[in-house]
Amino acid sequence: MKVLKNLLSIFRYKKDCNVSHYPVNVLIEVTNACNLRCRMCFIWGEGVSRRRDIGFVREEVWKAAIDEIATWPINVTLDLHGAGEPLLHPDFFTITAYAKSKKNISVGFLSNATLLDDEKARAVIETGIDWAAFSVDGAQKEIFEYYRRGASFEKVEANIERLLSLRKNNKPTVIFNMVSHNEADPGIFINRWKGKVDVLILSKKRPANREEGTPIVLSKPCPFLYQQLVMGWNGMTGLCCEDFWIDYVMGRFPDKSLYEIWHGKALNKARMLHERGAYHKIALCQHCDAGELHGYEEERIENTLIRRELP
Fold this sequence. Notes:
The protein is an alpha/beta fold. It is built from twelve helices and eleven strands. The protein has an eleven-stranded mixed beta sheet. Helix 4 runs parallel beside helix 6. The chain is globular and about 50 Å long. The chain starts with a helix and ends with a strand.
């Protein structure tokens, strides 16, 4: 009976799996340096003692990666962020402009908005970036500045307002992510930005130390493994965007091409474990609490999509 259950489990998982020939989403970590020390951050937060070498993706690496992606016969979404603040990279807009010069690549980034001055806001518009996401924990100054240590509430709001005023035809798409701290009022946040930005995401608050969370139960393999390829600033590729420390090295670019890494032994092994329902053998997956695994409730208010992460 146990063997039969295992076979049925494998069949159920594999039925939902489809490895695309190329990843539809590639994340290039332009830097893991950050100018803030947010209390709840997995990398720089309170109680986090681990450290990675800090660096900035070199031109020979990002250019080679973008050139390869440009040869793929599919449309690819390129995320230019990672474990740090992307606007710290001195060549950030050179990278975005180069990526945007490729017909099959759409480009976006996630930022804390503290460095989004007038020059950078105009560069976002001029380089044709497709989407810009900002971590903005609510619309209450005291709560915002308590959690986002080093950030000025007024400056962040002013920076984003400036970008919104420069948009043409509502481009780029502007997305906000708010961590739902217990003392933060999501209603104030929604009222502040509804009708101004395109998407407001209300995310669950997660412990900085994953292992403090409850082990998860997946009903099917994680979609990240079949859609997304993540490369750190030094060319090391990780398991997914939740592998902040690149603990699970899938390969190193450009020693191997992105295509070779995508179809390589390491990623295929991780997929196999998920397909067999044995994802718990990967410690990261056992305690992962990514919002994409929860799903969202959605409603639209004044042309703004409100997405509330489910338990």
